[in-house]
Fold these 2 entries.
Entry 1:
Amino acid sequence: MKINNRLYRIGNYEFKAIGDLKRELIERGKEIIDLSIGDPNLPLHENIVNSLMKNIKKEGCNKYPPYDGEQELKKAVIKYYKEVYGVNLNMDEVVILIGSKEGISKIIPAVCDTGDSMIITDPAYPAYLNNAHLWGVVPEIVPLKREFDYLPDIKSIPKNIISKSKLFMINYPNNPTGALANEFFYKELVNICYNNNIVLCNDNAYGEIIRLGEKNISLLQFDKEKQCIEFGTMSKTYNMTGFRIAYVVGNSKVLKELLKVKAIMDSGQYIPIQLAAVEALKIEREYIYSMRKIYDIRRETAKKILKLYQIEYYDGNGAFYIWCKTPKSYSTHEFCKELMYKCNLIVTPGYVFGNLGYDYFRIALTEEKEIIEKGLKNLKKMK
Ligand SMILES: Cc1ncc(COP(=O)(O)O)c(C=O)c1O
């Protein structure tokens, strides 16, 4: 059978492989602690549940939703951007998505032709590179390094890469490193993208998951000409990963093209889920602060144990991940495998996020503090 050649460029989805192995170990009777996937263990807010239950029964809610999203949800996103970031958006500057992963894929054919270039960082959330391959777009890789706090060193990006690329994908707060962006960085990058006709896109999936005391910032605060776009999701902030509900905001021309791709491929998220997201966005800010506090405590707990076992890590202030250096006596693959078999602990090997992740592994703080503590204390069984 003649299969699409581009799919050979895409490896098996590593998280699926990790999941398969986990199932196998559980079937063998092992008590596994899984700190690999960024799927929060926290409960749903009751307003979200109540809204969903109510609207499932509401007349008309079973119909096809509008392609660009329910008006009520788009308005709630506009209000959110105004209140949290001080950014004004119009209705044609918001599109509702079936998870931001959907938008990350569809933005590529919306902006790029086959054979065009897009800039992606290394390390990065794997969906960027995989989707570049899927759509036949050439990924131009820009390294993220510890010495630049995991921000791209803009001045060192080769000029020919800047001039030929149509899309630049960044992700702050960052998965997997936990790094945050800053005003200076955004302003500099926005300028370069303006001058080179590049659509700059920030994946702001972890926008609300920052250390208490840190300030929420959005790329769009620095995009005075409204040329950039930003993704947001209900998945991480409101523990709604399974709902598949997110949005993209920013340049209306780009969103119009994205909407074309979307209309070809799907019909929008189920209306009661969109309305549940409206309720989520209405929850008082105290809820967000208490969630940040939970992750802060988990982060501190994990860091203490990592220090105890002399595992180096990046002291990031964003997302719910800790980016750790693999101990010198192991390759990352060996280390993660031994952690699994010897310590019943699953973490994500850094190479999942790109070539520069080979020497690292990622811990997700998506379990209770006590479970994180128990899992990481098993590190004492390693060399
Ligand atoms: C950086 C980043 N973007 C997007 C997503 C996907 O989010 P969603 O559930 O909205 O598809 C993830 C999920 O882990 C992520 O880490």
Entry 2:
Amino acid sequence: MIDKALRLLESGRVERLDGDRYNVIGNHGTYSVVARDGKVTCTCAGFQSRRRCSHSSAVTILRSRRRGKS
Ligand SMILES: [Zn+2]
């Protein structure tokens, strides 16, 4: 899961729309990821059933990296 999330990040497939919203281009389509109140949600089927997925993980990693730099 984390490897896949890192691969999404490194291939530039996480796109920031505005403050808390991101588009993540996955292997099967583009998903909307929203980060709010410390929680990250994704529109993909995997997230609906497992409450986690590589897309939301990628955004979580991206946000923690940004915090670390500033
Ligand atoms: Zn997802």
